[in-house]
Design brief:
By secondary structure, this protein is an alpha/beta fold. 25% of the residues lie in helices and 21% in strands.
């Protein structure tokens, strides 16, 4: 079995890549270990907490014990299903801030500045948010990825946005457009009441072309002829075979599985590969390193009025929501319930937002455990640009063994100061008039937690991953010893092998990562095809006095 291009991973980057290659007339095989995304657990937006906790859809990874979090091991969900993590995530769509991509370009990823990536964001989008305002010059309206906004019918959404403005942060009609900073409506990859994953947006249309085929198998390693990648060794039905690529192999297996595959294939830190008896094809110290994530806390508040989603947090309520969605694709089941958000700067001297807020009109965890307080609401919040770095390593040379994942959360001293600011600034927002009409009291951390030590203890015991791992095969100049791929996604030191997923991020972007991960697949396709979109020099909004003012 062979094709011009062999892609490992039918997820966010891989699906977008396959779509554009097929559009250009190329023959593509995608190797995907996961199964179907059919069924309400994935397709119903309100059911988002289920697939990431189900082994049939998730690889089931978790971190090593994290010293900065009291030795806790945090789950690290990655999609094991067509659509990848876009089929199990929270469906929140955030591009990142313009300055994130300018930083990429400045750090060695030439051609990845904001002006370079904006046309790819526009090409991939079919934006439906114009009714709230925003500048269409920053958005796309013909792409395969539908981006919508929830109805914001619950009065708590409006109250949260108003409280942010009362605290002095201003309003943003479109945080993915001209102005990220401020409070406003949140966007989601939901269309006509369904999760609009990359399987729905890209993969199925690509397969209908007849030029894309999925092979259900476990990728074991990239096969080389000397230093040229010629295919991928897979295990399928107990048999091991090689799927050959006439042109190139592209890894889009996630920021966890892509570095794992590179190392199993002989591309990585030579000493580490030797420990596991793996022949070294290219000694690249950066493979698996530079691991980053967003860490967040859920700040929860008890509600004065019974207007939260807690009234549906029972078997009968969930059944009613599910039935309505099943027959009409409408109602509460058609929303991920993240319909309002905020992006703020933690201090003066911070050029662009480094704190994000997702507002949720119920006090509940991702694992589905509701607060014992009953009616309540929460914000998911945390710093956006932690300086802590971790690593993905091999446990053995066996492809079936899970990798070792160590994020080193909170290992940089600045993380603690930034998180304390998050807690205190959040309390200030919820003390505004728009929210005091709804806040009965603070559930967690709780009013008694005021000192630095108390806040630190809360963070250590309760901080959770936002599930945004990235950076483990970062882009950079060919002579950068820590870089793994060049700015065209080509793995340095070998030929015929690229990476097209969030592994290539030099630094984590603001907000949720699915949007920029899809953009990477879009742009890497053009690098493969030897073409590019013209730069779009739209200047984003930055606070005019950011050096002296926090808001």
């Amino acid at each position: 079995m062979e094709a011009e291009y062999v892609i490992v991973g039918a997820g966010s980057g891989g699906s977008a890549l396959a779509y554009r290659l097929a559009e250009a007339g190329k023959q593509v095989l995608i190797i995907e270990h996961g199964g179907t995304d059919a069924g309400p657990f994935i397709q119903m937006p309100a059911a988002l907490s289920y697939p990431m906790n189900m082994g049939v859809y998730d690889w089931g990874y978790q971190s090593e014990p994290e010293p900065g979090l009291g030795g806790r091991r945090l789950v690290t969900p990655r999609g094991k299903v067509i659509g990848g993590s876009s089929s199990i995530n929270g469906m929140v769509f955030v591009r990142g801030h313009a300055r994130d991509f300018d930083h990429w370009a400045e750090s060695g990823a030439r051609g990845w500045g904001y002006a370079d990536v904006l046309p790819y964001f526009k090409r991939m989008e079919h934006w439906h948010g114009g009714a709230d305002g925003g500048d269409p010059a920053f958005r796309g309206d013909k792409g395969p990825l539908h981006i919508t906004r929830g109805p914001r019918k619950n009065p708590l959404f409006k109250a949260f946005i108003e409280a942010g403005q009362q605290a002095g942060y201003g309003y943003t009609a479109d945080y993915n457009g001209y102005r990220q900073e401020g409070f406003g409506p949140m966007e989601a990859t939901i269309w006509k009441g369904r999760r609009w994953s990359t399987a729905n947006a890209y993969l199925r249309p690509a397969m209908k072309s007849g030029r894309v085929q999925i092979v259900r198998a476990l990728a074991r390693k990239v096969v080389f002829d000397g230093t040229r990648a010629i295919g991928v060794e897979v295990e399928q039905g107990g048999a091991v075979k090689v799927i050959r690529a006439r042109a190139e192999v592209v890894l889009a297996a996630s920021s966890i599985n892509t570095p794992k595959l590179l190392m199993l294939s002989g591309v990585g830190p030579a000493a580490h590969l030797a420990e596991h008896g793996i022949n070294v094809i290219a000694d690249r110290a950066g493979v698996g390193g530079n691991l980053q994530d967003h860490l967040e806390v859920y700040m929860q508040f008890a509600a004065k009025q019974p207007i939260t989603l807690f009234r549906y947090w029972n078997l009968w309520g969930k059944a009613l929501i599910g039935a309505q969605w099943l027959f009409t694709k409408k109602g509460l089941g058609a929303s991920n319930q993240f319909e309002a958000c905020g992006f703020i700067r933690s201090d003066k001297g911070v050029e662009y937002p480094d704190i994000q807020y997702h507002f949720l009109p119920i006090a509940v965890r991702y694992d589905g455990k509701a607060s014992a307080e009953g009616h309540g609401f929460q914000v998911h919040t945390g710093p956006m640009r932690s300086k802590s770095r971790g690593r993905v390593s091999l446990r053995s040379g066996d492809p079936k063994d899970a990798p070792s994942i160590r994020f080193n959360y909170m290992s940089h001293p600045d993380d603690w100061d930034e998180f304390r600011k998050v807690v205190r600034l959040t309390r200030e927002i919820f003390a505004q008039e728009a929210m005091t009409a709804h806040v009965k009291h603070e559930i967690q951390p709780g009013a008694r937690v005021q000192s630095d030590a108390g806040i630190d203890a809360f963070i250590r015991e309760h901080a959770e991953s936002a599930y945004h791992p990235c950076g483990t095969a970062r882009m950079g100049a060919a002579d950068d010893p820590g870089a793994v791929v060049d700015p065209e996604g080509r793995v340095i030191g070998v030929q015929g092998l690229r990476v097209a997923d969030s592994s290539v991020f030099p630094r984590i972007t603001n907000g949720n990562l699915n949007g920029p991960s899809i953009m990477v697949g879009e742009k890497m396709a053009d690098h493969i095809l030897g073409r590019s979109l013209s730069a779009v020099n739209n200047e984003p909004w930055v606070h005019g006095d950011w050096q002296a003012a926090q808001r």
